[in-house]
Amino acid sequence: MMKIGLSEPSELIDKGLVICHEKHTSSHPFGIFYGQNPLEFSFPLVLLQVVTFTVIARTLRFLLKPLRQPMVVSYILGGIILGPSALSRIKRFREYMFPDDSEFVLKNIGVMGFMYFLFLSGVKMDLTVIKRVGRKQWYIALIGVVVPVCATSITASLFRKSLDKELAKALSVWGVSSALSITAFPVLYPIVRELNLLSSEIGRMALSTAVISDIIGIQGIVIFEAGKQGEERTIAALWYLISLIVVIVSIIGGVRQAMIWIVRTTPEGKPVDQIYVIGILLGVLVAGFVADMFGLAIANGPLWLGLAVPDGPPLGATLVEKSETIIMDLLMPFSFMYVGLTADVSSISAQWSHLQPLFYMALVGYTTKMLSTLVASRFFDMTARDSFTLSLIMSLRGEVELLLFIHWMDFKMIAKPHFTMLVILTVTVTAIATPLISVLYDPTRPYMVNKRRNIQHTPLNTELHIVACIDGEESLAGLINLLEVSNPTTNSPFSVYALRLVELVGRAAPVFIDHENQENGSDDSDFNSIHNALKIFEEAIGESIKMHSFTTITSKRSMYQDICELALVRKASLIILPLYKKHLDNLSGTELLIQGNQSVSTNVLAHAPCSVGILVNKGSYYQNHLVSCAMRLSVHHFAVLFLGGSDAREALAYADRMAANQDVSLTVIRFLSHENEGDNEMEKKLDDGLVTWFWVKNEGNNQVAYREVVVKNGLETIAAIQAMNAEYYDLWIVGRNHGINPILLRGLSYWSENKELGIIGDFVASADFDSSASVLVVQQQILRGQDSASGSLLRRFSFST
C-alpha cells in the first residue's frame, strides 16, 4: 500500500480542504502467502471486476433467454446489479470492488468501449442502402422522427416551469427530443440478428429504415451540439461547424481513399496485411482524440471512421473478424459497468418531483415513436401484425442512448437521478418490445404452405421449378451434372433458380441480388465464373432448361430464409443444397467434411415450402465423373435405396425422371421387413402404389432394374447395402427419414453423425462406406401450418436458439 505524503501549505488540511485516502498501487502482489491482499493492487482488481460482471451478465442471459431478452438487457442489468443500486450499496463490497480511484479506470476504458462499438457499427453499416430503398422506408423514417420530436417538444413546453434550469433551455429540449425520436442502427442490428430476422422482410425494412432515421436524426444532434458550443460564445458554434466539415472531409477524402488503396492492392482471396488492420484500429483512438479536441463529441470520430471503411471483404470483413470479440466481450463490459456504477435506483424516489417532466417527455417520445411508425406502416398497406412488429423494432433502445445520457451529464443537463431513470426506461422499453416482436412475427410463417409442391405430384408434362444453391465452385460441377441427368426435355422443361450463397461478413445489412433485373451485379470473380458456367450449360442444353441467377449475402443463421423465400415466390418443387465431402487418401477411413451450408441445411429441411434434396459430392467423383455434357460417352449407374415412407417415394419419383434419360442405368432396391413387422399400413399402401406404378411404367426399359431385400434389423440393412457396393454406382439416391419402418433401422439410431442426411444417407455418404459415388438425400415437402398457435408460442419461449 502506498502512503500519500503531504507538503506545505498545511493550512489546507486544517481547513478540511484536502481529503486523504489510500491509493491502489500499480505493482503486482507477491501473493496471499506473503500476507498481501490482491484487491489492494490495481491490475488484479480490474480482472476481478471484469470477471464478476461477465459472470453476472451471462447468468442473467441464461435466465432471461427463454423470455427472448437480447444481450444488451442482460448487460445493462448486470451493470445495475454491480452498482450502487444493488451490490455496491454494501459498503464493504463497494470499498473492495470499486474504490474511489477505480472510477477513473472504469470510465476511460468504458468510453473507449463505446468508441470501438460505434466504430464497428460504422464498419458494418452500408449507407448505399438509401439508394436502393423505396419511398415507403423514407416516409416511415421521416414520420417516425418528426412526430416524436414535435410531441416531445410540446410536452416539454407544458412542463417547462417544472424542468430543471439547464434542461428547460430550448436547446436542451431539442437535444432530448432528437435523441428520443431516432432509432440507432448500432442498437437495432444486434437485436435483429439475435432474433434471426436479418433476412426476413420485416428485418430488412427495419434496418434500411433505421439507416435513414439515423441520417435524419443526426442532423438534429449536430444542431444541438453546435448550439451547446455557442451558448457562451456564438463564434464557437461556427468553429464547431467548420471543424465538423474539416474532419468529415479529411476522413472521406483522405482516410477512405487510403483504405480503398489498401483494398485495391490486396491480392484477391488474401487477407489484408496485419499492419493495416493495426493501423486502422489505432486510428479509432486518433479519431476520438481529434473529435474530442475540436469539441465534436469523442464518439463521433470513431463512427465516421467506421463509415469510411469499405464494407465487406477484404478490409471490412477482416476488421470485424479481428476485433469484434475483443470489443464486445472485453471492452464493452467496462462500458456497462460504468453505466451501472453511475446509475443509482435509490436516488429516484427522493427526486421524483424533479424527474416527472423528463419522465413524461421520454414516455411521450417513446409512445409517439411507436404509434407514428405503426400508422405510417399501415398507410403503406402493411398488415396490422407487420406494422406493429416494425413499430416495436423501431422503438428498441440500447448502447447509443446510454452514451447520449452520459454526454448529457457532461453538459450538466441532467444529474444522476435523471440518468438512472433514463437508463431504466431504456432497458424497460427494450425488454418489453423484444419478446413481443418474437411473438408477433415468425419469419417462417410464409413458408407454411398447404399446397403440394414436390416432384411426386408435379405432372411430367409441366415445367419443373428448382432452386439450386451454390456455395462455391466446388458444388457447381455436381449441380450441373445432376441437372443434366435429371432429363429436362422440351415437354418437361426445368426452370432453375441458381442461388449463390455468400456469408455476410464485415457488413450488417443483408443483400439479395437478382442478376437479371438489377444493374448492381456482383464484382466477385468467383461468382462471375459460376455465372458463366451456368450460362454455358444453359446454351448447351437448349430450350429444355432456363437458368436464373441470384446471389444472397447474409448470415449463415438466416440464410435459409432467402432460400425458402425464393422457393416460395418461384413456386419451386425442389431445393437442392450442396454438401461436399472429400476422402483423405493417406488416412484410411478419414474424410474431410467441407461443411459450407451444413448448418443451413437443417433450417431449410425444417422450414422449406417444397421438397429438399441434399447433394453430397465426394472428392474422387467430383474430379473423375463430373465432366461437360459434350464429353459424356459412358452410361451413368444410379442406385435408389427405397426404405419406404414419403421421403423414399419422393426419391423414387425423382429417379423416375432420370430413368427416361438414355445415359442412365437405374437400380431400385426396396427394403422390406421380415413378415411385415413394424409396417405402417397406410405408408405401406402408398409405397406399394408408387412402386407398382414405377415398375409398370419402366417394365420395358432394359436399363431399369428392380429388386427387393427382406431384412430383420438395421445391421442386415447395412449388410445388404454393403453387398451392393460390389457393383459400381455413380450416384446413390435415398429418402431422408420420414415414414421409414423402424425395424429397418433398428440398432442404428446412435450411429448417424450428420442428422440432416438421415441414418442411411449418412452411412452411404461416410468414409466407412467405401464408395466414391455421390449421394442425393431427398426429403419430400412437409405440409405445415397445422400446428396450434399455443404450440408455436411455446416453441418460441424456450431455451433453444
UniProtKB/TrEMBL annotation:
Subcellular localization, as worded in the UniProt entry: Membrane
Main location: membrane
Residue span(s) of domain Cation/H(+) antiporter central: 496-619
Single GO BP term: potassium ion transport
Pfam families given in the database record: CHX17_2nd (PF23256), CHX17_C (PF23259), Na_H_Exchanger (PF00999)
An example molecular function term from Gene Ontology annotations: antiporter activity
Ranges for domain Cation/H+ exchanger transmembrane: 55-437
Residues of the Cation/H(+) antiporter C-terminal domain: 639-781
Record-level GO cellular component terms: membrane
Keyword vocabulary terms for this entry: Antiport, Ion transport, Membrane, Potassium, Potassium transport, Transmembrane, Transmembrane helix, Transport
Topology class, membrane: Multi-pass membrane protein
Function (record text): May operate as a cation/H(+) antiporter.
Similarity comment: family membership: Belongs to the monovalent cation:proton antiporter 2 (CPA2) transporter (TC 2.A.37) family. CHX (TC 2.A.37.4) subfamily.
Protein name: Cation/H(+) antiporter 24
